[in-house]
Amino acid sequence: MxxxxxxxxxxxxxxxxxxxxxRTAPPAPSFRFLKEPxxxxxxxxxxxGYEPTAAMFELGRKLFHDGIxxxxxxxxxxxxxxxxxxxAHPAVNPPGVHGNVAERHAPSLxxxxxxxxQRWDGGAPSLEAFVLQPxxxxxxxxxxxxxxxxxxxxxxxxxxxxxxxFAKPVDARSVQRALATFVRGIVTxxxxxxxxxxxxxxxxxxxxxxxxxxxxxxxxxxxCHTPPLFTDEGFHNTGxxxxxxxxxxxxxxxxxxxxxxxxxxxxxxxxxRLTAPYMHDGSLKTLKAVVDFYARGGNRNPHLDRKMKxxxxxxxxxxxxxxxxxxx
Length: 328
Prior knowledge:
Blueprint: E1 5-10, E2 31-34, H1 54-64, H2 77-80, H3 127-136, H4 145-153, H5 156-166, H6 172-184, E3 186-188, H7 192-197, H8 206-216, E4 235-236, H9 252-255, E5 264-265, H10 287-295, H11 315-326
Parallel strand pairs: 1-3
Antiparallel strand pairs: 1-2, 4-5
Helix pairs in contact: 1-5, 1-6, 3-6, 8-11, 10-11
């Protein structure tokens, strides 16, 4: 039996054959208690050590949108991960406290509950570890876990909410679990691509199907952006962030292995049309720019992933590949 999931679901509009009426915009986030993930996605891995509940989810949703987690009360999780832009931020570096900005682009939170490691460099070993890290970052929330807990304990509404959700007073582990339960509910699936795989031929246009062929054949995109989550959850050096042939530390900052220099986590392509700009540094503004980057083989450097090679893609191929990405 599938574990019940608390999910914010994004369905990417009704399917349309080429020449038919355009797809509708995705609906606003809905908060629902689901017994299984959206069609096309696997079962969500269960968290270790606790059973998520509706009360945890609602508490996590409240915390996610509340500036009380930050030192000056102005920055919430939703500041960097707004739902309207796919839980990513539309700026290259999202804003933090006191006019500061985050070190890296804020990636989408879609389907992050499936990932064993979090952050662009994999520096968070679990979702529970990840959700507390921004609190102590001086460029993001500019506080500390201790100060954040003191603020929550002074708030009568939060004291009641934590007792309801966890049957105990406010503590760091409960904050972790509430926020992680909420983030595990941020899922997106049942896209035109998934409907096409289920036999709804009209769910994808001819151009999108051509793009799928490019993705799965000479584009080789699937090797790192592996369906159905469209990420291998691995780390690769594609040359993003390379300056004069020298890559940033990337994954090597965590592993201390020189071979990992310039490697960054493979982001999901699910609902990617909502989450521009792209890459860990926000350097590529459009999906067309992303396709062009890969078509030329990325940026050369001593640690470039061996999968990165120039691709023979016509302008028609590139446009089709962008259309396919938007169908996810």
